[in-house]
Design goal:
By secondary structure, the protein is mainly α. It is built from six helices and no strands.
Length: about 150
């Protein structure tokens, strides 16, 4: 029963993260309990955070957005401020979510890592869209505006 629950939850999580790595999928598939799944989510979250930082760096170097940053990549400027505030929000929100959940969905580790991974995944998609837009040179896609 527990494995079926984890499998169903995994499908929901993976649909939210179409870009999950094979390593994450393998780890998730081999997990025997929710604390092991939490470890898989923690590793995937670390990978996503690294990707997010790379995207922020690309944004800071892009001609269309570098002046807006008004600083040096992720060391100073608007992007650092934005990243720091997002991390603080994400961490506080997930702390509150975990406290309010009190093991409703799994262990405390599972609840926290699931929340962190969901918010990190969502932020990755949003910030990735900025670099896609900047690289498109301001061209609009008619399909997105129908």
């Amino acid at each position: 029963m527990f494995r079926k629950f984890l499998f169903a939850l995994g499908l929901c999580l993976l649909s939210n993260q179409a870009f999950a790595t094979p390593e994450y999928d393998e780890c998730y598939g081999q997990a025997q309990n929710d604390d092991q799944v939490a470890l898989c989510m923690k590793a995937e979250n670390a990978r996503l955070l690294k990707s997010i930082q790379e995207i922020y760096l690309n944004i800071s170097k892009h001609p269309q957005t570098s002046a807006w940053n008004n600083g040096n990549a992720l060391l100073t400027g608007n992007l650092k401020d934005m990243y720091d505030h997002w991390m603080a929000y994400r961490n506080r929100y997930c702390s509150l979510f975990t406290k309010a959940s009190e093991n409703m969905f799994g262990s405390e580790n599972f609840d926290r890592e699931r929340c962190l991974l969901n918010l990190t995944s969502d932020h990755y998609k949003l910030i990735h869209q900025i670099i896609i837009n900047a690289n498109s040179g301001g061209e609009e896609d008619d399909e997105d505006h129908e």
